[in-house]
């Protein structure tokens, strides 16, 4: 019987089609994977809604999805650490390994990363997918495939918290209680953060955030000025935070992050927002606040898998909705509303 390889292909804004594509063939350094689960990410929503995300602007039809987990079905001749039947979480990148950033150990900044679900490489919301074996991570027996897929955004959150310098006793604010913001809170709590305040414009997200990790929450209303938000955060937290993470990328959030953080503190921006944003830079510089970015994942897949396997981080309550592949568009539309936390698409 001929194998099928149905995939979710984005042709342009709001034009998502389920199509049968050729089953990918592998080279000596790759593995073929039968995909079990793929998480829906905010970048999928942006790509579907606008046809672009950040600096990524596809000009050809593209398979979406980059939070994948599945079972190895073929192994390249030079692959030694994986075998057919292994359950793997897919770190969705294939860096060149030769540019100055890869050579210096910062492969997340690779000049040609061939990141999954961008113009440089197809996504993995397909029945079969091939990937460089070095970036396929074997799952422990006590992790489900759903958790394996959700490891991807957790790895992003761990890298963000590493960049932010979270440590024992940190008081912090996270602006945006979407999946990445909530995972940053869960990660920061596991790292020893003392007080975590989260903001959002959707109350249901704040309710979930409070259940999972946040000590305080603040619902942001349209009529609030930046200064009002700062005052409310200070009142709830009992002062200014040492670390503020922007996980929503709204211009107002980026301004607030710089206004509210204490002198000598850190602002970490993990959300992908507008190309140009007006921010209060002079005051930020004079107060010696470090403003940092966090791009994707850097050596945090292993720690993410270990944290979930050990019980240090529980992803089960973070995963809130499940859909079959044929209802991918419905899942994306739900994600757009903000009513869901992590949505998992089930294949095969």
Automatic annotation (TrEMBL):
Positions of the Enoyl reductase (ER) domain: 12-345
Q: Give GO BP annotations, semicolon-separated.
A: sorbitol catabolic process
Note the InterPro entries from the entry: ADH-like_C, ADH-like_N, ADH_Zn_CS, ER, GroES-like_sf, NAD(P)-bd_dom_sf, SDH-like
So where does this one cross the membrane? Answer: none
Q: Which UniProt keywords apply?
A: Metal-binding, NAD, Oxidoreductase, Zinc
A Gene Ontology molecular function term for this protein is: zinc ion binding
Keyword Metal-binding among UniProt keywords: yes
Oxidoreductase in keyword set: yes
Task: Tell me which stretches of the chain form a coiled coil.
Answer: none
The coenzyme or cofactor needed here is: Zn(2+)
> What does the similarity note say?
Belongs to the zinc-containing alcohol dehydrogenase family.
UniProt name for this protein = Sorbitol dehydrogenase
Natural source organism: Papilio xuthus
What is the name of the gene encoding this protein?
Answer: LOC106119551
């Amino acid at each position: 019987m001929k194998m099928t390889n149905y995939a979710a292909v984005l042709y342009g804004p709001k034009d998502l089609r389920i199509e049968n594509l050729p089953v990918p063939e592998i080279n000596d350094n790759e593995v073929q994977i039968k995909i079990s689960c793929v998480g829906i990410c905010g970048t999928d929503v942006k790509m579907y809604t606008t046809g672009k995300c950040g600096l990524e602007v596809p000009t050809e039809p593209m398979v979406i999805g980059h939070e994948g987990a599945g079972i190895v079905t073929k192994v390249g001749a030079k692959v030694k650490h994986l075998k057919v039947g292994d359950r793997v979480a897919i770190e969705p990148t294939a860096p060149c390994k030769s540019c100055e950033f890869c050579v210096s150990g910062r492969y997340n900044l690779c000049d040609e990363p061939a990141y999954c679900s961008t113009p440089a490489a197809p996504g993995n919301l397909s029945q079969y997918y091939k990937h460089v074996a070095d970036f396929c991570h074997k799952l422990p027996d006590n992790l489900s495939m759903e958790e394996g897929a959700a490891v991807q955004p957790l790895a992003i959150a761990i890298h963000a918290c590493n960049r932010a310098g979270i440590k024992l006793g940190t008081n912090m604010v996270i602006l945006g209680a979407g999946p990445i913001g909530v995972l940053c809170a869960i990660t920061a709590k596991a790292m020893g953060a003392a007080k975590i305040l989260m903001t959002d414009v959707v109350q249901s997200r704040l309710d979930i955030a409070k259940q999972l990790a946040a000590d305080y929450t603040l619902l942001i209303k349209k009529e609030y000025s930046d200064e009002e938000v700062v005052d409310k955060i200070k009142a709830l937290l009992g002062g200014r935070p040492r670390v503020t993470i922007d996980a929503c990328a709204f211009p107002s959030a980026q301004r607030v992050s710089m206004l509210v953080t204490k002198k000598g503190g850190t602002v970490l921006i993990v959300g992908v927002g507008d190309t140009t944003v007006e921010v209060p830079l002079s005051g930020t510089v004079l107060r010696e606040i470090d403003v940092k970015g966090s791009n994707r994942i850097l050596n945090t897949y292993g720690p993410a898998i270990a944290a979930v396997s050990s019980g240090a981080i529980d992803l089960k309550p973070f995963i809130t909705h499940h859909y079959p592949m044929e209802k991918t568009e419905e899942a994306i539309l739900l994600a757009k509303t903000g009513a869901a936390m992590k949505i998992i698409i089930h294949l095969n």
